[in-house]
Amino acid sequence: VRNSRDDTDYDAIVLGTGLKECMLAGLLCLHGYSVLQMDRNDYYGGDTASLTLKQLLQHAATRAGEDPAAVTIPSELGNPRDWSIDVIPKFILSNGALVKMLVRTNVTHYLDFKVVDGSYVFDAVKGVQKVPATAKDAIASKLMNLMEKRRMKNLLELVAEHESAKVTEKYDLEHMTMAELYDAFKLSDSTRAFLGHAMALHRTDEYLTQPAIETVKRLMLYCVSLSRFGSSPYIYPLCGLGDLSQAFARLSAVCNGVYMLRRGPDSFEFNEDGSIKGIVSNGERAGCKWLLGDPSYFCDREMFAGAVKKTGRVVRAICLMKTQPAGTLGTSAQIIVPAASVGRQTDMYVSCQGYGHQTSPKDRALGLVSTTVETDEPEAELAHGLRLLGEAEGNILRKFVFVNDTYSPVRGVESFEKRGVFVSESYDATSHFETTVADVLGLFTRITGKEIDLSVDTVIKHPSTLAAEAEEAAADEE
Fold this sequence. Notes:
Number of strands: 19
Shape: globular
Helix content: 25-40%
């Protein structure tokens, strides 16, 4: 599949080393395509990097227009080498799409994971409560009375058997809405809130008017993920999410991918028909059939006007804390704040990790709050989440608030994808990677015309490996 034009020509040039870009580069290399990946930064990960304490302070200074070289590290934060801080915080569903991708690409041996200790939901009346996703939790839960617990149990039994004839004959999940399914089980508004937002992980209530089958599948995914480890459905890599990008970068490198850090494109070249021809960086040219990258490499360049569109803003707060937030157990947790419980249109996500996941010193903790911006005062929108982290009680030692625009590629008749230019979507405010993997799989199919089936457990192998195995098998037959 590799181009034979010359050594500076590649099938694909990938701009950025965020998780999506590294996943795409790894998948392309694994399928035999030649790839050059570049990043303007001096570290892997892009927006999904895990930063040291000094890097975070410098990042914040740069965003504020200050001199990053002048930052000092406060002694109250402990050993700066013990911090590993995600710029975009997300957990991983243990039976979700990202885990399946890790298995299919065989990069799991580059990573170590640890289960997140607890999954919680915020209730406007009862405060932070453990998500009652099992029979034991449901019995102990303060979120529901006895009759409501029985009704929820009946719904979860339907979820577990949603493909059986017993269920399909009684409920047309493909056509009835989720609101109608809730009505059929006579569930209260508060139960609907934690089922739809803390378990099915919807960001808004729009799902209520959509076919019930989608939410039923999401509930099933949550329950199966929870059953793998028991305490919560989430896992998290030791030392932070940045290692995910590096793991896929190693996969690409093993399959002859080429990497350049501290290098970005200075200019772009196009063929007469408008399709991408290559890039120029530091006076050196590299040709390609496909150009891939995150939105930051395209949104401010005139030649790519119309390639991406702004879809909104996300606000995130990174908090360096004294200890874990009240109401949670262990050293890590996720708290989902349903929109309706705090008078919002979109959910808020609160997470915390610490020494157990090797992201903070032993006597400190790392807290993160994120949500979709709805007003002209983004930081004020995080008030409920920061309150859960103990801001009023002085639990937060340092707080860093970042507001980022979100973009998505423009598709259609005049799409840049028809010219060989493919742009990933910005990372949303969700607390998981399901939408991330869906974007990667969609991009891979549109680029190559091939599909990757995550329901299959077999490892994807490089063409040279397959050829060697075929030769070995033929020799054995002889």
